[in-house]
Amino acid sequence: MTEPVAFVVRPPTRADADAMAVVHNTGWREAYGQQLPERFYDDAALGRRRETWRRVLGRGDLGYRIAVGESGGAVVGIAMVGGSLGDHPVRDLEVYALYVYASHYGTGIGQALLETVLGEEPAQLWVAADNPRARAFYARNGFRPDGARKVDSGLNDLAEVRLVR
Fold this sequence. Notes:
The chain has a four-stranded antiparallel sheet, with helices on both faces. A three-stranded antiparallel sheet has the order 5-7-6. It has a domain at 8-120: Aminopeptidase (3-Layer(aba) Sandwich). Helix 1 (17-32) crosses helix 2. The protein has 165 residues and is an alpha+beta fold. 31% of the residues lie in helices and 30% in strands. The protein is built from four helices and seven strands, in the order E-H-H-E-E-E-H-E-H-E-E. It has helices at 17-32, 43-58, 109-118, 132-140, and strands spanning 8-10, 65-71, 74-83, 93-100, 124-128, 144-152, 158-164.
């Protein structure tokens, strides 16, 4: 078990955009490093994520629920929920992002982020089929595969499954 760590979960500010991009980029590398090529985590990818978070946070409330987890004065986790995407959603809400640095796995930050942006509401999300840690986390939170599966050509043909609760 991971040592207890002090953290807070709070709404992000515009000033958090760059730190959020680093967590997002690093989260991808730590979760999918063996499944996706380096171009998904390189400096160009980080730059795109910075621009995305700056744009999202700069627009104000667009109906997203976003939170950051902070420990030791640094952003170490992010979460984002919004209206479901895609052609055939089965829930009104979708978890778009939930990333925590691997060094903070097991500390409760991921759980606190999910509870902050979603609570107990029904939702859907897509997760890599070969991501047992994430799938176990979501299963503990009531998410189950509903049989939907896709191969994402934009993610180097990464196989994903939809989880719902």
